[in-house]
Protein backbone atom coordinates (compact mmCIF):
# COMPACT_ATOMS: atom_id res chain seq x y z
CA UNK A 1 0.00 0.00 0.00
CA UNK A 2 1.27 3.52 -0.74
CA UNK A 3 1.73 5.75 2.29
CA UNK A 4 3.23 9.13 3.19
CA UNK A 5 5.24 10.25 6.21
CA UNK A 6 7.17 13.38 7.16
CA UNK A 7 10.68 13.08 8.58
CA UNK A 8 11.94 15.89 10.83
CA UNK A 9 15.73 16.02 10.66
CA UNK A 10 18.12 17.83 13.02
CA UNK A 11 20.84 19.99 11.37
CA UNK A 12 23.61 17.70 12.70
CA UNK A 13 22.55 15.10 10.09
CA UNK A 14 23.07 17.44 7.12
CA UNK A 15 25.98 16.13 5.09
CA UNK A 16 26.99 13.49 2.56
CA UNK A 17 24.83 10.77 4.17
CA UNK A 18 21.64 12.86 4.30
CA UNK A 19 19.46 10.59 2.13
CA UNK A 20 20.52 7.40 3.90
CA UNK A 21 19.77 9.10 7.24
CA UNK A 22 16.27 10.05 6.03
CA UNK A 23 15.68 6.45 4.87
CA UNK A 24 16.93 4.96 8.14
CA UNK A 25 14.80 7.37 10.16
CA UNK A 26 11.75 6.40 8.06
CA UNK A 27 12.27 2.71 8.85
CA UNK A 28 12.73 3.48 12.56
CA UNK A 29 9.70 5.77 12.86
CA UNK A 30 7.24 3.78 10.74
CA UNK A 31 7.90 0.04 11.00
CA UNK A 32 6.07 -1.58 13.89
CA UNK A 33 3.62 1.28 14.38
CA UNK A 34 -0.15 1.13 14.12
CA UNK A 35 -2.38 3.62 12.35
CA UNK A 36 -6.15 3.57 12.63
CA UNK A 37 -6.71 3.79 8.89
CA UNK A 38 -4.15 1.30 7.55
CA UNK A 39 -3.41 -0.94 10.56
CA UNK A 40 0.02 -2.21 11.57
CA UNK A 41 2.96 -1.27 9.35
CA UNK A 42 4.94 -4.51 9.12
CA UNK A 43 7.73 -3.42 6.76
CA UNK A 44 8.65 -0.64 4.36
CA UNK A 45 9.21 -2.29 0.96
CA UNK A 46 10.19 0.63 -1.28
CA UNK A 47 10.76 4.35 -0.97
CA UNK A 48 9.13 6.05 -3.95
CA UNK A 49 10.10 9.66 -3.35
CA UNK A 50 11.89 11.85 -0.84
CA UNK A 51 10.61 15.36 -1.43
CA UNK A 52 12.47 18.64 -1.07
CA UNK A 53 13.02 19.52 2.56
CA UNK A 54 11.30 22.51 4.13
CA UNK A 55 13.33 24.45 6.72
CA UNK A 56 11.44 25.04 9.96
CA UNK A 57 11.73 28.78 10.77
CA UNK A 58 13.61 29.55 13.97
CA UNK A 59 14.59 25.94 14.61
CA UNK A 60 16.93 24.89 11.81
CA UNK A 61 15.23 21.50 11.46
CA UNK A 62 14.18 20.33 8.00
CA UNK A 63 10.94 18.49 7.25
CA UNK A 64 11.16 15.91 4.43
CA UNK A 65 7.96 14.49 2.91
CA UNK A 66 8.48 10.82 2.00
CA UNK A 67 6.25 8.59 -0.15
CA UNK A 68 6.78 4.87 0.32
CA UNK A 69 5.16 1.46 -0.05
CA UNK A 70 4.69 -0.85 2.91
CA UNK A 71 3.26 -4.19 3.93
CA UNK A 72 0.43 -3.57 6.39
CA UNK A 73 -1.74 -5.81 8.58
CA UNK A 74 -5.28 -4.64 9.30
CA UNK A 75 -7.57 -7.40 10.50
CA UNK A 76 -11.30 -6.85 10.08
CA UNK A 77 -14.26 -8.13 12.07
CA UNK A 78 -15.01 -11.76 11.29
CA UNK A 79 -11.63 -12.43 9.69
CA UNK A 80 -10.08 -15.79 10.60
CA UNK A 81 -6.40 -15.52 11.49
CA UNK A 82 -3.73 -17.93 12.74
CA UNK A 83 -2.55 -17.18 16.26
CA UNK A 84 0.29 -18.48 18.39
CA UNK A 85 -0.66 -19.21 22.00
CA UNK A 86 1.87 -17.52 24.29
CA UNK A 87 0.31 -18.02 27.73
CA UNK A 88 -2.53 -20.02 29.29
CA UNK A 89 -4.02 -19.31 32.72
CA UNK A 90 -7.29 -19.75 34.69
CA UNK A 91 -9.09 -16.83 33.06
CA UNK A 92 -8.16 -17.50 29.43
CA UNK A 93 -5.27 -17.47 27.04
CA UNK A 94 -2.98 -14.93 25.41
CA UNK A 95 -2.04 -15.18 21.74
CA UNK A 96 0.08 -13.31 19.24
CA UNK A 97 -1.15 -12.65 15.73
CA UNK A 98 1.81 -11.09 13.95
CA UNK A 99 2.43 -7.77 15.71
CA UNK A 100 -0.86 -7.93 17.60
CA UNK A 101 -1.45 -9.45 21.04
CA UNK A 102 -4.85 -10.92 21.81
CA UNK A 103 -6.57 -12.20 24.96
CA UNK A 104 -9.31 -14.82 24.67
CA UNK A 105 -11.40 -15.30 27.80
CA UNK A 106 -12.29 -18.85 28.79
CA UNK A 107 -15.93 -17.70 28.97
CA UNK A 108 -16.13 -17.20 25.20
CA UNK A 109 -14.58 -20.53 24.24
CA UNK A 110 -16.68 -23.63 23.65
CA UNK A 111 -16.69 -26.12 26.53
CA UNK A 112 -16.58 -29.16 24.22
CA UNK A 113 -13.52 -29.08 21.95
CA UNK A 114 -14.67 -32.15 19.95
CA UNK A 115 -15.69 -31.55 16.32
CA UNK A 116 -19.37 -31.17 15.53
CA UNK A 117 -21.49 -33.78 13.72
CA UNK A 118 -20.83 -32.24 10.28
CA UNK A 119 -17.08 -32.74 10.61
CA UNK A 120 -15.85 -36.14 9.48
CA UNK A 121 -12.58 -37.89 10.26
CA UNK A 122 -9.44 -36.59 8.52
TrEMBL record:
One of its GO terms (biological process) is positive regulation of translational initiation. Pfam families: S1 (PF00575), SHS2_Rpb7-N (PF03876). It comes from the Eukaryota. This is DNA-directed RNA polymerase subunit. Residues 75-107 form the S1 motif domain. Coiled coil: none annotated. The keyword Cell inner membrane does not apply. The gene is Polr2g. One of its GO terms (molecular function) is single-stranded RNA binding. Signal peptide: none annotated. DNA-dependent RNA polymerase which catalyzes the transcription of DNA into RNA using the four ribonucleoside triphosphates as substrates. Belongs to the eukaryotic RPB7/RPC8 RNA polymerase subunit family. It is found in: Nucleus. SUPFAM superfamilies: N-terminal, heterodimerisation domain of RBP7 (RpoE), Nucleic acid-binding proteins. Keywords: DNA-directed RNA polymerase, Nucleus, Transcription. GO terms for cellular component: P-body; RNA polymerase II, core complex. CDD domains: RNAP_II_Rpb7_N. Residues 6-60 form the RNA polymerase Rpb7-like N-terminal domain. Its main location: nucleus. The keyword Magnesium does not apply.
Amino acid sequence: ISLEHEILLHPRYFGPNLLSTVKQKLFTEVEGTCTGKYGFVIAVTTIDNIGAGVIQPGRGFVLYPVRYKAIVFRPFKGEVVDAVVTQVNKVGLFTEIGPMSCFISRHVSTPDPSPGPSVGPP
